[in-house]
């Protein structure tokens, strides 16, 4: 009986556990982005005329409007920021709101411009 356990059952059990173990995708890093925030806001129109943060993900990108806020981030005009943010899809977003929630993870830099 002990021989059967050592030679058949134990190796099969170890093999089946190893096969079933798959690396789990890191969803945290998949939802993290680096944003460069311009030193000035721009006029934009969402539901009504408003001021939008100017954002890009790479230095070579063009500036784009961010129509929602970044939770935990307080913008100060005259400074360019590099931020790490988490993006989360909002289930059933309001009709006049964003379908993505942005949350500040880390302020990488703040440079006077």
Strand content: 35-45%
Structural class: alpha+beta
The overall pLDDT average reads 82
Q: Measure the end-to-end span.
A: 78 Å
Order of helices and strands: HHEEEEEEE
Q: What does this entry look like structurally?
A:
This protein is an alpha+beta fold and 113 residues long. It has two helices and seven strands, in the order H-H-E-E-E-E-E-E-E. Strands 1, 2, 3, 4, 5, 6 and 7 form a seven-stranded mixed β-sheet that branches. The chain is globular, with a radius of gyration of 24 Å. Residues 21-28 have low confidence and may be disordered.
SSE inventory with pairings:
Blueprint: H1 2-20, H2 27-30, E1 32-37, E2 42-45, E3 49-56, E4 64-66, E5 70-71, E6 79-89, E7 100-112
Parallel strand pairs: 5-7
Antiparallel strand pairs: 1-3, 1-6, 2-3, 3-4, 6-7
Short description:
The chain has helices spanning 2-20, 27-30, and strands at residues 32-37, 42-45, 49-56, 64-66, 70-71, 79-89, 100-112.
Label this structure with key terms.
113 residues; alpha+beta
């Amino acid at each position: 009986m002990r021989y059967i356990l050592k030679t058949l059952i134990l190796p099969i059990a170890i093999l089946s556990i190893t096969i079933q173990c798959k690396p789990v995708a890191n969803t945290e890093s998949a939802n993290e982005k680096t944003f460069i925030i311009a030193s000035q806001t721009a006029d934009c129109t969402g539901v009504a005329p408003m001021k939008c943060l100017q954002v890009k993900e790479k230095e070579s990108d063009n500036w784009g409007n961010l129509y929602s806020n970044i939770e935990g981030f307080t913008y100060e005009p005259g400074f360019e920021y590099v931020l790490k943010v988490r993006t989360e899809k909002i289930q059933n977003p309001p009709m006049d709101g964003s379908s993505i929630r942005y949350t500040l993870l880390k302020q990488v830099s703040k440079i006077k411009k």
